[in-house]
């Protein structure tokens, strides 16, 4: 229903202003004020029943937002964090994250939709004109403000009362620390966890594919084998966190071809173990060239020489791959003789 369908007698009276009239351009005023277009009334402006329907629609949207907020709270309390659901066509998702995201999204969307519908159907839509004025204050006002400021500073005696001034500055400087203290609730400090992995003396090197401990005879010259620490299983809750630091690649090089003295000492019969995590941005390294003993990170092409301490010979990586010292136990299995020589992965602030 438009304003053209309403009898003229039922339309509200419109007060005409000089801005409603169309200006006429002439030589003195080539850019005349075109005036405002005629105001068209909405159905809700002239039909109270339509206004009531819009009011109920807005209230319904806000009510849906409230229900979604309640659903968010209930989901946060009731849904276990380890529960997963299948959502077509995305796949398996965390049930908690899905419920929280969906309920929060609906709550926010309904508030926005209700506000927009309210503004478009019930709030006044008549255009008003506000003449522009100079933003800057007049010179006399600016002069008075500066005079008042100087007078206030003089009367406060902040320059003469140094004890008051210094203690005030101290109080204002220390007060924000109370907010900083709230950051402790974000979780425990990392401590030295970034410096260490779960590798330790006596842990066996377990083949990632067969899940069996490795013997020296299992590693052929020129081969690349991936290993994990003994006791770390894929179903463990912390598996992804730990394997991201402890992932290991093992290659066997003829001892005569090993250039780095420490690398040779930390190897066993030419078997060397290095971190699989690239020192650039932490991508897993998986490409090995047995003729040159080079390994390549597939993300940004950082290249390391495993026959020379895994030093960087190309790419953006900042330092060599950490080496794991290995040996053989009494049962003939390869074992770690400690942790990595330095923190695994990209450089972080503790490294310095």
Largest sheet: 6 strands, antiparallel
Order of helices and strands: HHEEHHHHEEHEHEEEEEEE
- Give the % helix: 25-40%
Annotation, overall tally of beta strands: 12
In words, what does this structure look like?
With 352 residues, this protein is α+β, with helices and mostly antiparallel strands. It has helices at residues 43-46, 48-78, 95-121, 139-156, 162-174, 177-181, 239-246, 261-265, and strands at 84-87, 91-94, 205-207, 224-229, 248-252, 271-275, 287-289, 294-296, 303-305, 311-314, 323-328, 334-340. It is 32% helix and 15% strand. Strand 7 (287-289) and strand 8 form a beta hairpin.
Question: Keywords for this structure?
Answer:
elongated, alpha+beta, 8 helices, 4-stranded antiparallel beta sheet, 6-stranded antiparallel beta sheet
Layout of helices and strands:
Elements: H1 43-46, H2 48-78, E1 84-87, E2 91-94, H3 95-121, H4 139-156, H5 162-174, H6 177-181, E3 205-207, E4 224-229, H7 239-246, E5 248-252, H8 261-265, E6 271-275, E7 287-289, E8 294-296, E9 303-305, E10 311-314, E11 323-328, E12 334-340
Antiparallel strand pairs: 1-2, 3-4, 4-5, 5-6, 6-11, 7-8, 8-9, 9-10, 11-12
């Amino acid at each position: 229903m438009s304003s053209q369908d309403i009898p003229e007698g039922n339309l509200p009276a419109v007060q005409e202003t000089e801005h409603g009239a169309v200006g006429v351009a002439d030589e003195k005023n080539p850019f005349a004020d075109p005036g405002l277009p005629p105001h068209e009334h909405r159905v809700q402006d002239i039909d109270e029943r339509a206004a009531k329907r819009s009011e109920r629609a807005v209230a319904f949207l806000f009510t849906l937002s409230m229900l979604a907020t309640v659903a968010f709270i209930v989901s946060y309390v009731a849904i276990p964090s380890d529960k997963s659901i299948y959502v077509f066509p995305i796949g398996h998702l965390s049930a908690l994250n899905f419920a929280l995201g969906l309920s929060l999204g609906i709550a926010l969307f309904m508030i926005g939709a209700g506000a927009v519908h309210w503004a478009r159907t019930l709030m006044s839509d008549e255009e008003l004109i506000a003449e522009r004025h100079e933003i800057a204050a007049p010179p006399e006002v600016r002069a008075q403000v500066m005079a008042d400021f100087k007078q206030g500073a003089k009367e406060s005696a902040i320059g003469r009362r140094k004890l008051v001034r210094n203690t005030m500055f101290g109080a204002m400087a220390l007060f924000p620390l109370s907010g900083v203290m709230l950051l402790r609730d974000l979780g425990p400090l990392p401590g030295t966890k970034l410096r260490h992995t779960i590798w330790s003396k006596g842990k066996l090197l377990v083949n990632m594919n067969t899940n069996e401990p490795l013997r020296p005879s299992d590693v052929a010259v020129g081969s690349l084998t991936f290993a994990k620490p003994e006791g770390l299983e894929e179903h463990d809750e912390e598996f992804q966190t730990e394997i991201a630091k402890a992932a290991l690649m093992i290659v066997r090089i003829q001892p005569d071809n090993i250039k780095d003295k420490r690398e040779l000492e930390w190897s066993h019969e030419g078997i060397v173990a290095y971190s699989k995590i690239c020192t650039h941005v932490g991508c897993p390294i998986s490409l090995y060239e047995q003729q040159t003993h080079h390994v390549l990170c597939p993300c940004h092409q950082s290249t390391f020489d495993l026959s020379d301490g895994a030093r960087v010979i190309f790419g953006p990586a900042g330092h060599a791959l950490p080496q794991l010292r290995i040996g053989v136990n009494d049962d003939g299995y390869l074992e770690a003789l400690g942790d990595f020589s330095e923190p695994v992965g990209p450089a972080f602030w503790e490294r310095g």
